[in-house]
Amino acid sequence: MQLVQAGDTAQLAVLFERHHMALFQHLLALTRNRAASEDLVQEAFFRVIKYARTYNPGLSFPTWLHGIARNAYFDSLRKRRAETPMEPLVAAEMKSSTPAPEELLSRKQDSAFLQNALDQLPADKREVLVLSRFHNLRYEDIARILECEVGTVKVRVYRALKELRARFCELRGEKVYDA
Amino acid sequence: MTPEDYRLLIPEYLSGRLTAVESAFFENAMAADSGLRAEVEELRSLWQGLALLAEEKPSAAMRAQFYRKLNALPRGHGRSVERHSWWNLAWPKQLAFGALLFAVGLFAGRATLDQRVHTDEIAQMRSQVRGLQEMVALSLLERQSPTSRLEGVAWSNKIDRPNEELLNALVAALNHDPNVNVRLSSLDALEKFTGDGAISKALVDSIQRQDSPLVQVALIDSLVRIRDHSAADEFKKLTVASEVNPAVRQRARWGLEKLTYQ
Questions:
Q1: Between chains, do A38 and B62 touch, taking CB under 8 Å as contact?
Q2: Sign of the C-alpha dihedral computed for residues A99, A105, A109 and A112 taken in this order
Q3: Which residues of B47-85 are buried (b: 16+ CB within 10 A; e: fewer)?
Q4: CA triplet B158, B160, B161: central angle to 5 degrees?
Q5: Which of A10, A63, A106, A131 is deepest in the core (most CB within 10 A)?
Q6: What is the pLDDT along chain B (262 residues), one digit of tens a residue?
């Protein structure tokens, strides 16, 4: 990043290779639109060049980058109308050493239900789950990205998980009994 | 702490982020509160299930588009960049495009003469197009400029079933290319073909060949994604190698856990 700040924009490629996957998944959690997310990933990286001088080396680069990407997303919302929802994912492939057919079908169904439940969550809850669960970001970093307090992140992650569970159980046709 | 405070700690407990002292307090609280215990178990299976969902990946076109835009940045933005126009294209691409246009023209001519286009002729055309794409990719992978080699990898992404020569060239790029970006892009391209045992073995073997922590971490992530359990031994070696970058050692520990327990 220091090289990019010094004007060596070709080094942006290194940052792209390192971070584009996580950024895409974060943006997809917000937009649920693959094409829009791919556009926003690229927009975010080119904003890195534009705002390179504002980057503080003391701050984690991924945190800064994800914050830029979020701003790009909100800017794009102002420009376009409704999001085009994406199709739910096909159930994840799950490998097991000796899966019985019924067990395999059941696992696949559960994965599909879980993915659907995740897709159904409001964008802010889905976003915070993706950042904490899939990207293993510390709550302090998530708080900087979301521009809120760490305590708020804790509450959001917990409530997102609870709502995910409620939707998942609903899709499976189960009742949810809160502990 | 109130029961509600403990509940808010559940995600951190499940992700192993609590310190040893915090974990001990939390486990004491669970021992005393059956409701908390039950809730942790319910959310644990969900938390683990999330890790097993298919990872969303962007299309190969996104990378190609990004590099085209990066290359199109005007001079004075930093390092000079290659500009592309038809007349400046390297001769392999000119040859490939010319041959493709010729093939399309031939096809169109044949189709108007004989409305019944035979399936084997179409298959032959497809094979020729694939052969041309492979030739372009191979040629670009041998070029001096890293940008051209990156384009070579991007070309290989267009091919559903590359031949052995192209796959070997991608493996060679992963292991020996002096440019880290080319190695990372090659890994991305090869990951699609890890159903082929030879390719997944090449990825496992590549870990020890790499000097770039970036590429080592990317290899670990890739092998975890494809759930190649044969990589576990290599991950174990990385976790105890003192000369290995600490971030890589940590990622290897994570990868080992993923392969062992999931």
A1: yes
A2: positive
A3: bebbebbeebbbebebbbbbbeebbebeeeebeebeeee
A4: 125
A5: A131
A6: 788 889 999 999 998 888 899 999 999 999 999 999 999 999 998 998 888 888 888 888 888 888 888 887 764 444 433 334 444 445 555 565 566 666 666 655 665 555 555 677 777 777 777 777 788 888 888 887 777 788 888 888 878 788 888 898 999 999 988 888 788 888 888 888 887 788 889 999 999 889 888 788 889 988 988 888 889 999 999 998 888 888 788 888 888 888 876 5
**Structure tokens belonging to residue A18:** 């390192």
Query: What pTM was computed for the model?
Result: 0.56
H-assigned helices in B114-196? 119-141, 146-156, 164-176, 180-191
Segment B150-203, tens digit of pLDDT: 888 888 887 878 888 889 899 999 998 888 878 888 888 888 888 778 888 999
From chain A residues 106-145, the ones with a CB under 8 A of any chain B CB are: 110-111, 114-115, 118, 129, 132-134, 136, 138-139
Nearest to residue B207, comparing CAs of B196, B220, B197, B195? B220
Tokens coding A100:
């019985």
* Burial of A31 per CB tally in 10 Å (0-12, 13-18, 19+): buried
**Inter-residue contact B201 to B174 (CB < 8 Å):** no
Cα dihedral value B221, B225, B231, B237, nearest 10: 30
ipTM for the complex shown:
0.78
Interface test with B, best of A1, A15, A17 (most B CBs within 10 A): A17
B58–A161: do the CB atoms touch at under 8 Å? no
Closest Cα of chain B to A81: distance in Å? 23
